[in-house]
Amino acid sequence: MSAPHLRNPGEDALRREWGTVGGNDLRIDPAAAERLVKALNADLAGLYILFNQVRKHYWTLEGAEVGPVVEFLEGAADRLAEMTDDLAIRVHALGGVPVNGPMGFRQHTPIGIEAGDVYSLRDSLANDLEGYATLAAQMREHVELAAELGDEATLELVRGHLRTVEVDAHDVEKMLADDTLVRRD
């Protein structure tokens, strides 16, 4: 049985075309808005991919120290979902279309996409840490971009989410310390 195809409405129903940045009510220069939309969509795609990866690890946890890790992953997934919503809303406010759909996320993400296999808890968390680190580095650049372009609201939004990403990365790093998580040799 094949998946049903969604009907595309007529051209008059189209409000904003993917890949374009229209006017915005924020009175941000269109060229600046376009640069910000591109940056935020890259952050959005990365956060979304990391959300799915963290959620997969939550679903498939096994091992001696699962208890504390499951709590962290559940909270981390919630925080990632909230950040994706915030960025998508800001992209729309800037006159853009938030990145969406599997191919859109895949094309715009800065992080590697983990295979669908199930890995050891330590390897799963190491992959999560790599995703967090990549996103943190990119988000720092986007904080600078928002400051350079004078968009204080985007600056505060990305800076706040960067702090969350860094705190969660640090928590993963602590879980991966040598004296935690059972190793299999």
UniProtKB/TrEMBL annotation:
Alphabetical list of Pfam families matching this protein: Ferritin
Stored InterPro entries: DNA_prot_starvation (IPR054862), DPS_DNA-bd (IPR002177), Ferritin-like (IPR012347), Ferritin-like_SF (IPR009078), Ferritin_DPS_dom (IPR008331)
Top-level taxonomic group: Archaea
GO MF terms held by the record: ferric iron binding
Record domain Ferritin/DPS: where: 38-179
NCBIfam families given in the database record: DNAstvprot_Halo
Protein family per UniProt: Belongs to the Dps family.
Protein name, entry field: DNA starvation/stationary phase protection protein
Organism of derivation: Halarchaeum grantii
